[in-house]
Amino acid sequence: ARARGLREAVYALITARMRGEVAPGVDLALLNSELALALAHRRLAISDHGHDLVWAWDWRQERAMDVATHTGLTLDTLLWPLAVAAADLLSRRPEHPPLRQCASDECSWLYLDTTRNHSRRWCDMKGCGNKAKVRRYRQRQP
């Protein structure tokens, strides 16, 4: 239920941003509460190469403990990286890269338009884009 709530809140926040509207307060509060839980578990750690410091989650330690003791790990840990990634995405400047919604009437997926001229219209060319092209082709046929 919390995962669905977070997904709905992030969707509402992103679509409000795309329309240039003020972020919905309830959704922002929900994301901030999940973010507070997540950031309590974020740590700086030494990279695998041993030379750099990188962001890491302490859930990996909890997972190892969970295998041995069957305590500590919960499904909540899956929400931590999602909340942080959503906050990072929402705090970026809107034009780099632009957030878009699929142009298909049957799809409401959101995506980052990383094309050079920011002209991408579909969440996936193999799915929604192809269906639109086939539909346009059939409409032109006698």
Throw out a few tags for this protein.
mainly alpha, two-stranded antiparallel sheet, 51% helix, 142 residues
Main sheet properties = 2 strands, antiparallel
Q: Separation of termini?
A: 50 Å
What does the radius of gyration come to? 20 Å
Structural class: mainly alpha
Strand order of the largest sheet: 1-2
How many β strands by DSSP? 4
**Number of continuous helical runs:** 5
Low-confidence parts lasting 5 or more residues at pLDDT below 50? Answer: 64-70
Beta-strand content estimate: 5-15%
| Strand and helix order | HHEEHHEEH
Shape: elongated
Mean pLDDT: 83
| Proportion of residues in helical segments | 40-55%
Description:
- Strand 3 (99-101) and strand 4 form a beta hairpin.
- The protein is built from five helices and four strands.
- The strands form two sheets. Strands 1-2 form a two-stranded antiparallel ribbon. Strands 3-4 form a two-stranded antiparallel sheet.
- The model is unreliable at 64-70 (pLDDT under 50).
- It has 142 residues and is mainly α.
- It is elongated, with a radius of gyration of 20 Å.
- It has helices at residues 2-18, 25-39, 59-69, 79-91, 125-140, and strands at residues 42-46, 53-57, 99-101, 110-112.
